[in-house]
Amino acid sequence: MVRKLAVQPLLFASPVYWPDRNELDTAGKTLAGMLEAMDAPTSLMRPARIVAGDAGLDDALSSLGGALPLLVPLSGGVQKRMLAAADAASESLLWSFFPNDGIYGEKERETVLRIVSRNALPAVADVWGTIRGRGGRVTKVYHGDSWLAAAKDLAAAHRVRNTRILLVGYTQEWVVSASVDTRKMERMLGISSVHIGLEELFAEFEACRKDSAPASLAREFAQGARACLEPNIEQIEHAFRMYRALKNLLARYGCNALAISCFSLAKTLGVTACVALSMLNDEPETVAACEGDLDAAVSMAVGKAVTGIPVFMGNPVYNLDNTLDIVHCTSPRKLVSGNNQPYEIRSHHETGLSVSQRVEVEGTLDATIFRVGGEFRKAVLFEAPLLSNPRLDTCRTQFRFGLKSWEACFDAMLGCHHMVVFGRHGDALARFMKDRLGMDVALL
């Protein structure tokens, strides 16, 4: 079971500086109210606790229960207790005060001035330098915006660490650039996995025969399309039966990500997973990669954790006119908002079987293109404007992007499948991959 992300504010005070407990409680209440208001958009913080001695420290540490401590010094003389709290967690946050910069209300500023006058800022400097000197992870927080940035980073890291990939079948033999070392993936990134054979999926697909949901989903899918070319309604229902089967298996094994040997699936059942993967990638908590590409699944998990946006994986086609086409049959439909992009219902390109979709993105938009590779040690990213949605004889969804230099992007490639997330997220993704995941990152 995934433990909920939580942050525990701990307000450290020395009786030497706060001999009057009532005065300390009043200051603590003001600080707690400030933190509570700041946390309103995220709801990650527990109620603040005052730590005023060794007994208070023991009680605070015993109640952490996996929460990350937010260390708030209310005076000097508290450094050792703050470090003990930091040592009790995988990482911590450290609050600092800026009394001269107009970032507090009048009542808050009066309290902050009292705290600062009791040598809280030297404690901040001591603790910050010591934790970082020991190689620990600590994030500074000092006002609402800094807290929201820290909370977003913590949530993304928590989501990546709690990714569990269901591997259905094996990586397709032609995907030679992707890692197959799930133990290394878990050791380096905290992403776990479970492997099942295609036979279990076949059985689940058959078990979903009496499920009424695929028929209604298929009708809704068909009615929302601009056009339906090759598939008939029965094939569309089978595609959504595959979606239900995969959903059931994800729930059965407690997984929130998928990598599937989809070509092997098509050969046996005559049904592809294109629509199923599209649907799963549109869901807020799930990612799904085809061809059993583990690197792509990891890339998509990281991309969605950081941006909150569905990620499209596709084949790259570099062109000498400094453009790049990224094409595949599994595109999500909610690529730029919570609403579906325009789409056509098509067959799967390579096999001519089953159902896929051509999704189009209209307007002038930028996208971030990226991939994790090199046995999870490297990442390459670049931003590019969307130029058009070509209609070539290739995979159904087709996006053309403009590049500064096709050769620079080509030379930096880590493998076949490239991930696309719409919006300018290069800096945020690169920082997260480098700082949180320890990757060697090239932001072109």
Automatic annotation (TrEMBL):
Signal peptide coordinates: none
GO terms for MF: intramolecular oxidoreductase activity, interconverting aldoses and ketoses
Keyword Isomerase: yes
Keywords: Carbohydrate metabolism, Isomerase
GO cellular component: cytoplasm
Superkingdom: Bacteria
GO biological process, one term: monosaccharide metabolic process
Protein name: L-fucose isomerase-like protein
Organism from which the protein derives: Aminivibrio pyruvatiphilus
